[in-house]
Amino acid sequence: MSTFTIDSLGIVGTGAMGRGIAQIAAQAGLTVSLYDTNPQAVAAARQYLQDTFAKLAEKGKMSAEDGAAALARVLPCNALEDLAGCDMVLEAIVERLEVKRDLVAKLEAILRPDAVIASNTSSLSITAIAVGAKQPGRSRRLSTFQPGAADEGGRGDRRPVWRPRRG
Predict the structure, then answer these.
(1) DSSP states of 45-110 as a string?
(2) Rg, the chain, Cα only
(3) Theoretical Cys-Cys bridge with 89: which of 10, 72, 121, 125, CB 3.0 to 4.6 Å?
(4) pLDDT tens digits, 99-142
(5) Does any domain span residue 167?
(6) Which residues, in sequence order, are CB contacts of 145 under 8 Å at separation 6+?
(7) Residues 6+ away with beta carbon under 8 Å from 109
(8) What percentage of the chain exceeds 90 in pLDDT?
(9) Residue span of the structural domain in which 125 resides
(10) Quick check: 156 pLDDT over 50?
(11) Structural contact between residues 128 and 98, judged by C-beta atoms closer than 8 angstroms
(12) Exposure pattern of 117-138 as b/e (b: 16+ CB <10 Å)?
């Protein structure tokens, strides 16, 4: 079985779910690239993360240095193309099938062939989202629960390892 280590995560959508996922990924040591069609939403998400890391430091759940390092790993993106180097891109956008399908098609044109395209969908089938994709097998569901993980403390290096299913 081969493994694929994820060091960089792109997140499309900077609402509550996108922010929470970005927080956990940055705390785990991943480089996180944030993109949203609304540039002000990206700036607001990064400010939210800065405030969250500061609150966690105040509560003693992480050091101020760890909070600053986590924030430094969160990179704002101005264009979807800025996600091209990511090992995995997770969409946390509106729960509308056609919008998600359109995003998958755009990501396939941008990302390298071995990059994972993941969805945080809670109500749509990942198979339905991947319909029409050139490589539907690279699409995965990565569901998280609301709310995000604002109270989680830094827990060391927990980089996800991607193990593709064979068969």
Answers:
(1) HHHHHHHHHHHHHHTTSS-HHHHHHHHHTEEE-SSGGGGTT-SEEEE---S-HHHHHHHHHHHHHH
(2) 16
(3) 10
(4) 888 898 899 999 998 898 888 877 766 666 666 666 655 555 45
(5) no
(6) none
(7) none
(8) 56
(9) 4-162
(10) no
(11) no
(12) bbbbbeeeebeebbeebeeeeb
Region 31-42 average pLDDT: 97
pLDDT for the residue numbered 121: 72
Average pLDDT value over all residues in the chain: 82
- Distance CA(128)–CA(164), nearest Å, equals 20
| Residue 157 to residue 167: CA distance in whole angstroms | 31
- The verdict on residue 66 lying in a domain is yes
Q: Please state the domain count of the chain.
A: 1
CATH number at residue 105: 3.40.50.720
pLDDT at 149: 53
Scan for tokens 């607001």, then name that residue: 44
Please indicate, yes or no, if residue 63 is contained in any of the structural domains: yes
